[in-house]
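Tip: read the tokens left to right.
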């Protein structure tokens, strides 16, 4: 059964708000203006078959306002099934249960949802709470309605236990990936439940409000359904922050004439636009409670214009910029407040021009400028887009048309953040990881787009703001990103920790060595769940390479040991063997201080975690380990000839030196894995290259070729780690 609730705004305040709406022409979809009385008509007897039941008259009226030609027959049939199946069920408030699906459907009808969505909304609790089956819904209303109803139906708690809630959201999000109308119904369902949550125990109210805050409100924001998001924010605000809510309520109640200040500015703006010959509708748009609270925290004491914003609606995109020019010419603009979300729409479909102007009396008024079409999408988001599987305008979608015959359910409105979520949720190993990662993912407030330098399709990658090259690597390559070594950002070499900006061009550099893997430090730079889950899983599967201790998987068996055998590795491309006298195998990798390659003489040492590092004989680090009593391990080269080596080139600085060196390296058949250039000192430059050699025997010839580059006076094997302060090239 669904939750019950109390509206934090009293009936008297609602009535006052309605009066203000009528007086000021508020252009915001007011989803609470239709009261409970309209819904209680559901208890009336069945209507004749040739007309709609009285209980859904308001739904039909709201629906016809957006879709005048809609066929309401299917709504009547859906209501009859819902009412008969829920008959005898009551909400915790004592109301007949049918009032809940009716209220949810009315919310969606007010937003402009098409007929199929409303049909599924009326039936959304039947499969979960009554004897009606999904097959019955499919037989009577078609596959499309059945898909939507199934998408919002909770998983059985008896099967999932404590994991039921996260697994329900996982199921719902997967269904949303194919059809965003699933989440539209869920958001309307949660809104009505939050409105009537007051009959619940305080602790349950708080729990539901926290999930709404952490998951449902961010989803409403990402889907662009501002009309739902703003009311959900106010309802959550009242439950989780009652003192701040009461302060804000008193502040609004104590300034009953605040809209008059904005009204005066609105009249001036209207006069300016009429004189300029721009047809526009200028409206006062009061702020909702949470918005007033945020403005108070930002500005301190509030003035009349701070309690709302002006909304200017025009016919065409070009008119938006015409309005902007007139406002900035006739008023003093506050340039820091200007944002153009028309040229660069937000990732949730939102488009508007934002600006602020100072009136002659010094008051500052914020102004939103958009077309009527932009306004509809800004308020209703994906709900205004209608059926994603029908190539018609929303106003023409009047029935539950089935998806194409090929069965492909591809939603053309699926945003980048949803695609990322659907990808990483498949890798979430358990409900707790999914639930934690989902909340973290939804906590990101903005999105960036970066471009792939290789030109392959798709040419862009969508990432949350603050994402690094690590995130881009896993977004582009999935698990193949384990072998990523670095990146070029806007054409320059950059470490994987580099934070990307909107519009950056990224080229990820992958190692040719297939067994390369991430380091634990990558977790410090990963923002996306896809990257964090993949890195964590790899490190758990390769504990010998982890420098930090990670939590073990719940299904890992303690105390198990693999069969003893000689350990081998190809961490440098060349195969290495370590003979451990029957002890458990360990990773074998070349030391970074000297990067041995065949046919160097080598020696190995056990290090933390039981792995073995291999040094060139004579390496200073190896000598140091011998002096402290570390026993060497017998190691040897395998049959492969390839290898990886770090070379240091000392040179005099000159233009084109770096290009000449990399050309010499490429001509010798070596691949550059990474490169650093230290700051010049007395006209001398130190270059450090890590190179992959297809044949290690060619190393001497490569070093000679590098020494032949004009300006280079020495090339040597690295004997210590590069300077900690390199300059990226």
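Filled-in amino acids:
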């Amino acid at each position: 059964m669904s939750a019950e609730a109390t509206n934090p705004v009293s009936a008297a305040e609602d009535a006052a708000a309605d009066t203000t709406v009528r007086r000021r022409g508020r252009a915001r979809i007011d989803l609470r203006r239709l009261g409970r009385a309209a819904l209680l008509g559901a208890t009336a007897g069945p209507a004749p078959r040739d007309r709609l039941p009285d209980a859904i008259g308001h739904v039909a009226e709201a629906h016809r306002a957006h879709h005048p030609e809609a066929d309401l027959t299917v709504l009547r049939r859906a209501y009859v099934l819902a009412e008969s199946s829920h008959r005898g069920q009551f909400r915790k408030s004592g109301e007949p249960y049918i009032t809940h699906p009716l209220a949810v459907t009315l919310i969606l009808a007010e937003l402009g949802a098409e007929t199929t969505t409303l049909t599924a909304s009326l039936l959304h609790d039947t499969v979960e709470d009554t004897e009606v089956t999904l097959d019955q819904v499919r037989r009577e209303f078609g596959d499309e309605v059945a898909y939507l109803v199934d998408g919002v139906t909770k998983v059985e708690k008896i099967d999932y236990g404590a994991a039921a809630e996260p697994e329900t959201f996982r199921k719902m999000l997967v269904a949303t990936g194919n059809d965003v109308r699933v989440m539209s119904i869920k958001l309307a369902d949660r809104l009505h439940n939050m409105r009537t949550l007051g009959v619940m125990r305080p602790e349950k109210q708080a729990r539901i409000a926290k999930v709404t805050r952490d998951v449902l409100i961010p989803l409403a924001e990402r889907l662009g359904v501002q009309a739902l998001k703003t009311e959900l924010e106010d309802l959550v605000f009242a439950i989780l922050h009652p003192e701040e809510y009461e302060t804000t309520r008193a502040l609004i109640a104590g300034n009953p004439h605040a809209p008059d200040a904005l009204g005066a500015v609105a009249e001036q703006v209207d006069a300016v636009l009429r004189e300029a010959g721009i047809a526009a509708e200028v409206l006062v748009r009061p702020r909702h409670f949470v918005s007033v609270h945020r403005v108070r925290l930002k500005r301190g004491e509030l003035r009349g214009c701070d309690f709302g914003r002006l909304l200017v609606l025009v016919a065409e995109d070009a008119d938006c910029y015409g309005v902007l020019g007139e406002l900035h010419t006739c008023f003093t603009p506050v340039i820091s407040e200007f944002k153009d979300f028309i040229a660069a729409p937000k990732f949730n479909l939102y488009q508007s021009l934002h600006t602020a102007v100072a009136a002659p009396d010094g008051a500052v008024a914020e102004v939103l400028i958009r077309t009527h079409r932009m306004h509809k999408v800004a308020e209703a988001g994906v709900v205004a887009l209608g059926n994603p599987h029908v190539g018609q305008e929303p106003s023409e979608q009047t029935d539950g048309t089935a998806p194409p015959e090929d069965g492909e359910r591809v939603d053309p409105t699926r945003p980048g953040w949803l695609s990322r979520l659907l990808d990483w949720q498949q890798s979430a190993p358990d409900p707790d990881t999914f639930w934690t990662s989902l909340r973290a993912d939804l906590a990101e407030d903005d999105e960036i787009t970066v471009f792939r330098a290789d030109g392959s399709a798709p040419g862009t990658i969508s990432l949350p703001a603050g994402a690094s090259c690590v995130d881009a690597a896993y977004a582009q390559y999935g698990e193949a990103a384990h072998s990523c070594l670095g990146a070029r950002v806007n054409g320059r070499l950059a470490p994987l920790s580099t934070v990307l900006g909107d519009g950056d061009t990224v080229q990820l550099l992958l190692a040719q060595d297939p067994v390369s893997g991430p380091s634990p430090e990558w977790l410090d730079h990963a923002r996306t769940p896809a990257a964090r889950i993949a890195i964590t899983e790899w490190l758990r599967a390769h504990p010998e390479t982890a420098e930090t201790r990670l939590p073990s998987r719940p299904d890992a068996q303690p105390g198990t040991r693999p069969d003893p055998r000689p350990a081998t590795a190809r961490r440098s491309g060349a195969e290495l063997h370590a003979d451990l006298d029957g002890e458990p195998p360990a990773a074998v990798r070349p030391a970074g201080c000297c990067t041995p390659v065949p046919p160097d003489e080598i020696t190995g040492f056990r290090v933390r975690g039981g792995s073995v590092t291999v040094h060139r004989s004579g390496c200073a680090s190896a000598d140091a380990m011998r002096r402290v009593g570390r026993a060497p391990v017998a190691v040897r080269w395998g049959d492969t000839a390839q290898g990886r080596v770090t070379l240091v080139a000392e040179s005099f600085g000159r233009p084109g030196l770096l290009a000449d060196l990399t050309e010499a390296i490429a001509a010798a058949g070596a691949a550059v894995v990474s490169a650093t250039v230290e700051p010049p000192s007395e006209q001398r430059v130190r270059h450090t290259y890590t190179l992959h050699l297809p044949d290690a025997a060619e190393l001497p010839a490569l070093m000679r070729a590098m020494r032949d580059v004009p300006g280079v006076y020495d090339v040597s094997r690295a004997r210590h780690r590069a300077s900690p302060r390199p300059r990226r090239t």
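The chain has 27 helices and 22 strands. Residues 568 and 577 are 5 Å apart (CA to CA).
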